[in-house]
Amino acid sequence: MIALASRVRTVWYAATLAAFGLLGSSPAIAAVHAPATARTVSDPVDGGILEALFGRSGKLRARLVAPRRPLAIPALQRLFGDSALSRPGVYALKDSLTRGSDFSVISMLPFGSRSASGRIGSYRMGFWPAERHGARSAAYENPDGFIQVTPENANTAVSEHFHLRDFLTHDQQDVWPKYLVLREDLIDKLELVISDLEAHGTPVRHMAVMSGFRTPQYNQRGVGKGGRAEDSRHQFGDAADVFVDNNGDGRMDDLNHDGRIDARDAQVVIDAATRVEQAHPDLIGGAGRYRATRSHGPFAHIDARGNRARWGNA
Fold this sequence. Notes:
The chain is an alpha+beta fold.
């Protein structure tokens, strides 16, 4: 009887996660339709569902629901009530399957929510490159939607080490709500980089995000020779400029233990990202090494664009 109850619960979760688009083509979704003979909660069905929730790293603490997915509507209603249908936001998912961890389902606002001036409410977003001259590849198509970030939900954990607030654009400080584009692949990759660094003898208590999502209007300010790219990955929610800051001084730590803080410490982070890409080819992306300036210390750019790119002697 207990095994049957566990099986029913597993199938229910698989169906719900599939409606949210969180299982995709995972073997787990095929497994729940297979004969139930001798299956237990520890079988691959549950393992696949756990990966769908917690990612490859096992450290995700939120999953995003694209608004264009019609099957997500009844799933949201079933889990969180009628208000979830009309109010995008952060919804807590509490169940024993979440290992007792705080876990959130984040329902996004549709991409078409901006006004003709490129705003959502009072928040200035601007226009994505594909809206002006078409997408040069699938990786540069417009985002699926936006996460609405308020003072109340800004501290929502998206993974073990990161929160929504970490990825917000650094302008319009007094404007709320803010809106964020963020991809789970980036968060998962950053968590895997942290795990790899620790496995290679570099403890990481805090990885700081110097720059996460940039609205197109904010990114445009720095476009030009030697500056930001017009089609910067930061606008697509799958890029972050990061550094390890365990001592809390706001700058990169001496990761290679040579007594200096410089771009070679950023290279330690990039080397970890390269090893992660070798282990997880679906997370392949860009990595750039940046030197310190008067305004910031050295840092590493990491993204999950879908093809390998390196710069800055990385």
